[in-house]
Amino acid sequence: MVKRVVIALVVMILMAVQSVAAIPSPTEQLQVSVDRIIELLRDKERPRDEVLQELTGLVRRKFDFVAMSQSVLGVNWRHASREQQQRFVRLFSQLLEDTYRGRVAAYTYEDEYVEYVGERILGSRAEVQTVIVADKNIPVAYRMRLRGDEWLVFDVIIEEVSLVSNYRSSYAQIIRNEGFEGLLSRMEERLRELAEKDGTKPAEREVL
Fold this sequence. Notes:
This protein is an alpha+beta fold. It has seven helices and five strands, in the order ααααααβββββα.
């Protein structure tokens, strides 16, 4: 009986190992999305609106905005209502899309390219190190976590600056001074400013 149990456990472990091995690595999955983003940014023939729409879709499929939101808010996430959490995820995801899209789009990629220089995996988490090779090399690291068979980004570190950490302290201060609703109002105002700068109306901006 004991022997059968041991054999069954070994079979289960082998199946689990094979299942994990069958999943493309974080770098492989990330490269598909990043290469497509670069291809879009190099395409000068397509209308700008189409490029931005597809770029937004790529970012949304590859980023875990709920995990990022929880990390940014910390204990304030647990104190927020369900409706406030949903509003925050929607607004924060839009702000991060604009930030990431703006930083990535700052490079022409005509003579520039991305190198994948390292990967660290610890259980269901990973970090992929890349470098935008240009006149001045730009290090960009992606922190990812495994959801099912997908490695999703939950933070981006550009030139040693974390997008998530960049918001954490300032948001905590706003919540202390103005409450959670005050933070949401400020985020909505910031999105309106970005929409005007981008040449679109707030209502035209896609909502999660």
